[in-house]
Design goal:
Its EC number is 2.7.13.3. The chain has about 500 residues and is α+β, with helices and mostly antiparallel strands. It is about 45% helix and about 25% strand. Strands 2-1-5-4-3 form a five-stranded antiparallel beta sheet. Strands 7-6-10-9-8 form a five-stranded antiparallel beta sheet. The chain has a five-stranded mixed beta sheet with strand order 12-14-15-17-16. β6 and β7 form a beta hairpin. The protein is elongated, with a radius of gyration of 39 Å. About 20% of the residues are buried. Bound molecules: adenosine-5'-diphosphate. The site of adenosine-5'-diphosphate has 22 residues, from α13 and α15.
Length: about 500
């Protein structure tokens, strides 16, 4: 092929490249920036037709808003230096709508073999999608930031390798410092109340294992005053499950805690005051029952036994409230002893007529199983399971008690044929004051503290409490007690 033909072929393929390129391209020649070639994308940007080819850029883009654009290209020609423009907004008519679109621009000088600028290559890439996505993200972040600010929550990011903490200014305020003061890991952990340090350590250990950090603790401000904070966090790991960072939020809960403490103190005081008159009421009623029995007065025997039953119910409730306030102040203690669990069941079953007069209560005594636990409190948990089984299942139905020795634990269960529980309620019933409120429980009274107390008692024994149930098909409440360890 002759040299001239070769040049024509090279030109042709360069033009094809420009025309077919997925980005907007134009080549402008000589210092008057004559449009040598322009593909359909750049014609759309300029809002022109192909008849502009061969005309100078300044002539084609002569509207006042386009002058700065032409000037930038002229500057590139004169200086010989490349120019980049990012996310330039341009209004375009597309599909009958006039909207704003965004483009990244490159104006590249084209040089001859003597390094003289002979033209400028203009390339524009549309970045509208990226810009809009980023703007939406920024808006969402801003909304989140405003929401966080409004709720007084501080957020933070802790590097678990070198303990660096990046936090919002609210964290400094929560710890009693000026908002613009940056706090170190040492300052944050140093502020934890000495009595709560082990709670924080335990929550931290748990977070490394489960990825979730949750802790309510006291902190001491520089002026000696005490505040309560609630911190939640999530641990992020590397590919080898090595903990890298923890992201989280902290909120000041001092007011809520003070109210809780006041409420708790009131419950403790009221229950304590009620205990003494109730004890003497119970003693007198028992005396009257035995007198009525001696006199053989059926009416009095019946009425007084019913009163005694109600007094017992009231006593259980009051002792429950007392235990709850002890748990809240961390004062519920175990009084452990070694005993055979079957003996305990036999004692419970002995009161069968009293605790479940209208149900078929069954328990098969098995091999001797010695455990080390607080007998009275374990009896309280089993008693609570049984009274719930009675309350939430129909008269005449079966309640089955069972003890099973597993490899490391003892499994103690109470199964009924009652209303059962929805899956969503199965975790929550162990929370304080939680009660299932629906058609099936309407008219059944209670405070929602029995299972909470049971869960705390089992937790103190380092055991596990749970329920297996299907709605409408009964429930099996059970707990596991470690066979080896002494809870103390
Ligand atoms: P209370 O029975 O006084 O409300 P509990 O803490 O003992 O408090 O129980 C919490 C809730 O768990 C109850 O309100 C009830 O909805 C549910 N529950 C407990 N035991 C059973 C059971 N055996 N069957 C069905 N629901 C139960």
């Amino acid at each position: 092929m002759k040299k001239k033909d070769q040049n024509i072929a090279v030109r042709q393929s360069a033009d094809d490249l420009i025309i077919q390129a997925p980005v907007a391209i134009s080549f402008l020649k000589s210092n008057s920036l004559v449009i040598e070639s322009a593909n359909s994308h750049i014609l759309e940007l300029w809002e022109k037709q192909a008849d502009i080819i061969g005309r100078p850029l300044a002539f084609v883009l002569s509207a006042p808003g386009q002058l700065h654009y032409v000037k930038s290209v002229q500057d590139v020609y004169k200086s010989g230096h490349i120019h980049f423009g990012y996310e330039t907004p341009i209004r375009l008519n597309r599909n009958g709508h006039n909207n704003l679109f965004y483009f990244d621009f490159v104006y590249k000088p084209v040089k001859d073999s003597s390094n003289n600028t002979v033209g400028v290559m203009v390339v524009a890439t549309e970045v509208t999608k990226q810009v809009v996505a980023r703007q939406l993200l920024e808006e969402a972040e801003e909304r989140l930031r405003l929401a966080i600010e409004a709720t007084g929550i501080a957020n933070w990011d802790m590097d678990l390798l070198n303990n660096d903490v990046i936090a919002s200014s609210r964290l400094s305020e929560i710890f009693g410092y000026d908002a613009d003061e940056t706090l170190t890991y040492q300052q944050l952990f140093g502020a934890v109340h000495p009595d709560d340090k082990c709670v924080v350590d335990m929550a931290f250990e748990e977070a490394i294992k489960s990825s979730i950090y949750l802790c309510e603790t006291r902190i001491v401000w520089a002026d000696g005053s005490i505040r309560w904070i609630r911190t939640t966090g999530k641990v992020l790991y590397d590919d080898h499950h090595k903990p890298l960072r923890m992201l989280g939020t902290t909120i000041d809960i001092t007011k809520r805690k003070q109210e809780e403490i006041m409420k708790n103190d009131f419950i403790a005081m009221a229950s304590h005051e009620l205990k003494t008159p109730l004890t003497s009421l119970k003693a007198y009623t028992q005396l009257l029952v035995s007198k009525a029995k001696k006199a053989g007065d059926e009416f009095f025997i019946n009425a007084l036994e019913k009163s005694e039953n109600q007094i017992n119910k009231m006593a259980r409730l009051i002792y429950g409230f007392l235990d709850m306030s002890k748990i809240e102040s961390g004062k519920l203690q175990l009084n452990t002893q070694a005993f055979d669990i079957n003996e305990l069941f036999d004692e419970i079953i002995a009161d069968k007529l009293l605790i479940a007069p209208d149900h078929v209560l069954s328990f098969k005594s098995g091999q001797t199983i010695q455990i080390n636990a607080d007998k009275e409190k374990i009896a309280q948990v089993i008693g609570n399971f049984i009274s719930n089984a009675v309350k939430y299942s129909p008269k005449g139905s079966a309640i089955t008690l069972a003890v099973k020795k597993l490899s490391e634990n003892l499994r103690i269960s109470v199964k009924d044929e009652g209303i059962g529980l929805k899956v969503r309620d199965q975790q929550s019933v162990f929370q304080r004051f939680y009660r299932v409120e629906d058609e099936s429980t309407r008219g059944l009274s209670g405070f929602g503290i029995g299972l909470y107390l049971s869960a705390e008692i089992i937790r103190l024994h380092h055991g596990k409490i749970a329920v297996e149930s299907e709605e409408g098909k009964g429930a099996e409440f059970y707990f596991l007690l470690p066979l080896q360890t002494d809870p103390n």
